[in-house]
Amino acid sequence: MKLWQKDTSTNEKIDHFTVGNDRTYDLALAPYDCIASKAHAKMLGEIGLLTSKEVKDLTNALDNILKSTQKGDFVIEKEFEDMHSKIEYLLTQKLGDLGKKIHTARSRNDQVLVALQLYIKEELAQIKKEVVKLFDLLLKLAETHQRDLLPGYTHMQIAMPSSFGLWFSAYAESLVDDVAFLNTAFQLADQNPLGSAAGFGSSFPIDRELTTEELGFKTLKYNVVAAQMGRGKVEKASATAIGMIGGTLAKLAMDICMYMGQDFDFIHFPEELTTGSSIMPHKKNPDVFELIRGKCNLLQGLHQQLALLTSNLPSGYHREMQLAKAPLVEAFQEIKACVEMMHFSLSKIEVRKNITDDVKYDYLFSVDTLNEWVKQGVPFREAYQKMSKEIASGNYNPKRNLSHNHLGSIGNLQLDAIRDKMKSVGS
Fold it and tell me: Is the entire prediction scored with pTM above 0.70?
């Protein structure tokens, strides 16, 4: 069954090619198509195109279908093109000709638009919740380990003293920026496109403000052409937000993989969080973090993939947009899994103490020593040259008593300020 079916049938090869894997990904969107159809039915009742009994019968039937989608009982067989055709078939099967009325004053174009945007809104909200949860854990770890020093590196060379408190809270504050991107994507998705029909509106006197309120959108996409043009833009904004989180997690995962290595030996995880080697019994491999790194690196390319898909398309609907559905649905699932797994793993991290007491980290403290000379009146360039000579001659004697007190430094992490930043974007 196809919503656009006429008297002639389509070649089976064309059917297979054009439908693709839509049925699979529509299972994730079907609940939202039911919710949008309920709002649409109520609106049709308000403008007199359906009776109150017809509205009640349709919404009750849609509620039953919605329950089946939520329980996992909803199936889109191969004779149906997509979720829309299957849902309309079920309505017609139960309600007869009344089921055929649900498509009045709308198109499959705005059906999929509104279902996608409802889905995207919920997925973004779930991701945001998980990111804030990870943020809270990172700040807790930063507070616990704020006095545990850690070597800082530039160019992969020993550079200056850092700390686990600084390291954990750096990733926490980075997540604040990522949540801001989630908020932007949510704001774009929070505009009701329903009523744009095929992209040019309808001659029916539909009430778009009613469906906007009914579906919980903050506003509507007023211009019906702009509503259709939003297809692709909302997906790209979501992909950007996902990619930002992916970038943060990939970098954190890389640090963890490096710090777990025997040459560094800064952190440990329980045996059950690592994997072994088929021939090397001593191995404790960071497979979880390597997979997070790989998955998140791939997710950072999603925006470009969608940009290539949608580039140079004129206004109006085009079938290419169907191809945005699969990577977006998969990306939402992947990023949620990565955030959740990072939280699960980090909750069990073990930090090694007194790392920088080792003589191989003596040079970490050279800058602090020359800065003390500058405070005593020595010009910086002279202090730098003096320290260079002491290091070259082997006369350098590190002083490990640090005094870093400016905002955001080792001795002044500003965890409460970072927490307030997240509250401003994460609530």
Answer: yes
Q: Which long-range contacts (CB under 8 A, 24 or more apart) does 289-293 make?
A: 289/253, 289/256, 289/257, 289/260, 289/345, 290/253, 290/257, 292/249, 292/250, 292/253, 292/338, 292/341, 292/342, 293/249, 293/250, 293/253, 293/254, 293/257
Please, are residues 137 and 144 in contact by the beta-carbon 8 Å criterion? no
Which class would CATH give 12-104?
Answer: mainly alpha
pLDDT in tens, 361-404: 999 999 999 999 999 999 999 999 999 999 999 999 898 888 88
pLDDT at 123 over 60: yes
- Map out the domains of the chain as residue ranges: 12-104, 109-136+163-356, 358-426
- In the block, residue with structure tokens 């070597």: 151
* Class of domain 109-136+163-356 (CATH, top level): mainly alpha
Asked whether the predicted pLDDT for residue 287 surpasses 90, the reply is no
Residues whose CB is less than 8 angstroms from the CB of residue 313 and which lie 6 or more positions away in sequence, other chains included: 232, 320
